[in-house]
Amino acid sequence: MTSAGFGVVPLGIPGTPTPFTIRIPDADISQFSSLAKVGITGAPSFYNTRNVTDSPEYAFGVTRDWFSNTADYWANDFDWRSHEKYWNTFPQFTINVTAPSDGQIFNLHFAAMFSQREDAVPIILSHGWPSSWLDFIPMFELLTGKYTPDTLPYHIITPSIPDYGFSTRSDLTETELTYENAAEALNELMKALGFDAYIAHGGDVGSGITVALGANHEEVKAVHFNNFLLTQSEREALSDLPITPAENASFALAAQYMYSGLGYMFEQGTKPGALALVVESSPLAMLGWIGAIYAEYTDYSLDTILGQVSWYWYTKSYGRGLWSYRGVWQAFLRDRAGTLPSPLTITNKPLGYSWFPGEVLTIAKSWLDHWFPENLVQFSTHESGGHFAAFDDPAGFLADIEEFVTIVKDKVKF
Length: 414
Prior knowledge:
The chain is about 40% helix and about 15% strand.
């Protein structure tokens, strides 16, 4: 089953989505090739010749060998057009929406699987950083194999979240985006598609957006997460609650990440302007910043890693997407006094959570029981998978979403 039939927009919607095809200009690809081929790899050092696989204390980033070999492959063998062709087999659109709070016009890019069923439940899935809507393609593949447009029980919407990818806005250089702004724009997207009642899911940056959606917008009837963006004090407040052996192992992994893997967050949250100028100046700079994160924390193929890095390169969206880390940094620095909303505010809507053992932002079920005694309706655990859950374990992720919809449909009306 192909995904073509899932691109038929439901009749009578108030908005006007425009079909979208990814087609990076030849000149941009030629420029990338030239820049990638003239880039140089830095000199050997103590830090770039050691790997965390040799010893946990050597969590210095990717090695010089990995960087050099990957840069060579990216410049000479990676086929952007083949990735572009494959991604274009999934229905994509753009649509303009206006934010009620300040009048900003958002031009939002999104992929969609529309159902022809009148009782289909709308679901919006928001990605994080340094990923994109591409995380959800394995789930799209599963859905196209399982359903037809006439039987699909859901409308699945996966946007490039505001200021990421091909999603832009009118006040890009005039105002700093916040999680509340981003959520407002995505809520307007769903309303423009005719969805006045829907479910929201998010992870990483998408988790923060989903919190803002659930807390601020009545159209959101239920929320689902695979991680939370918590402050240190929020975590420490529950340190005495019981945890399972599996959770304990996950906390050990998370502790290592907190110790050696958060440097990028501080830099992106405090110096986004200067950092973006450097990262966006060269493909190799972007590889060393974004690609290295995937290389350190996943076992993805080079093509998968370079697909995500290339997405940021060709959409020129790395710098404008750093609003999300400004919000995270402010929350950590000021203990939630910044612009990142707390998930603990969502106490009046059904909430589901998917727990994956490789999650670096892990939590314990006892925490959820403490925070959401009345509205936690689903908690699912998995044997594998990590931070990029939808890509790591698409079958498990999809099963959780489908189970959550079944539970929620008995509690709220769509």
